[in-house]
Amino acid sequence: MTTAQLPLVVGVDGSEPSLRAVDWAADEAVLRGAPLRLVYACLWERYEGAALARDIGKPSTQVLPQEIATGAARRARARQPGLEVSSEVVFEEPEYVLVREGRKAAAVVVGTRGRGGLAEALLGSVSLTVAAHAHCPVIVLRGSHDNQVTPSVHGRVVLGVGDDVKDSAAVRFAFDEARRRGVPLEAVRAWRCPAHESTDHPLLAGEPARLHEKHAEEALAEALREAPSDVELHSRVVEGNARQVLVDLSHRADLLVVGARHRNGHFGLQLGRVAHAMLHHSACPVAVVPQQA
Predict the structure, then answer these.
(1) For the domain 157-292, what is the CATH superfamily, name and number?
(2) Dihedral sign, CA of 269, 275, 281, 286?
(3) Going by DSSP bridges, is the β-strand pair 255-262/269-270 parallel, antiparallel, or unpaired?
(4) Which of 169, 199, 233, 273 has its CA 20 to 30 A from that of 178?
(5) Looking at residues 50-77, what average pLDDT do you find?
(6) Alpha carbon of residue 112 to chain centroid
(7) 180 exposed, middle or buried (CB, 10 Å; 0-12, 13-18, 19+)?
(8) What percent of the chain has pLDDT over 70?
(9) Sign of CA dihedral 122, 17, 246, 137
(10) How do residues 133-168 score in pLDDT, each as one tens digit?
């Protein structure tokens, strides 16, 4: 099965944020020419899906898991008529189910906020776990996302370029997303000069910083050396903390792409501090893309 034929998998749970994720993923699936697969994984046979209950006109206490899944599927079809949509209920831990689903998916889409209190914390834990262990790209939709892929709201995809600059899966993913959306890609690498390398000597002032900046420029150029001609590319290096630089850029991006290292012999991805921070603080959807080591 080719990547184009693999489904886009969405974790649903009946909450309003997960239904907004269905909307976003339906748009994305159309852009990819991929089917949409909705998965509701839970450990309870009955669940109070208040948002979905209002959609289907039933009291929330009467909503059953299958109704949550099929209701979400109806929502996706209403948003994107003609889209191939399937749904399934699985009575297992959500994080295990979605990681497993990722083995046969083009990407997994999850929301970040649940139903308040402990449930909200649990859903956040699911998002982090899936992003840390899935073998495919995981797109985590922040609570403030604009609920749509097209038309573009901010008109750009932002890529954070890290240390894996050769044959980077995150770079390829970002190029593909920018091309599908018809928007520019802004590729950024942050750099900092360690405090112990600074000097007050007038003949050496600024030299250590310039060396770090030059290294960042070379690494960025190497990462983007196979940039496709049909994608408008803007690249730059920025002095500062990578986490803060990318959070700032996320306020004017439709999607933020970061990589995560996938080491053989370990279970899933080893999320770095940058990726972890983006999942907590980005103002737009975040795609965490695995990189084999």
Answers:
(1) HUPs (3.40.50.620)
(2) negative
(3) antiparallel
(4) 273
(5) 74
(6) 11
(7) middle
(8) 79
(9) positive
(10) 999 999 999 856 677 888 888 999 999 998 877 778
**Residue 201 neighbours by CB under 8 Å, 6+ apart:** none
Q: Are 45 and 145 in contact (CB under 8 A)?
A: no
Q: Per residue in 66-88, pLDDT tens?
A: 999 999 999 999 999 999 999 99
Mean pLDDT of 42-64: 57
Contact 287, 255 (CB under 8 A): yes
The domain segmentation of the chain, as residue ranges, is 8-141, 157-292
Query: What's the pLDDT tens digit per position in 223-242?
Result: 999 999 999 999 999 999 99
CATH homologous superfamily for the domain 8-141:
HUPs (3.40.50.620)
Cβ contact 188:237 at 8 Å = yes
Beta strands at 255-262 and 286-292: parallel, antiparallel or unpaired:
parallel
The two three-digit tokens of residue 150, written as one number: 């097209």
User: Are 84 and 36 in contact, with CB atoms under 8 Å apart?
Assistant: yes
Contacts of 276 (CB under 8 A, 6+ apart): 128
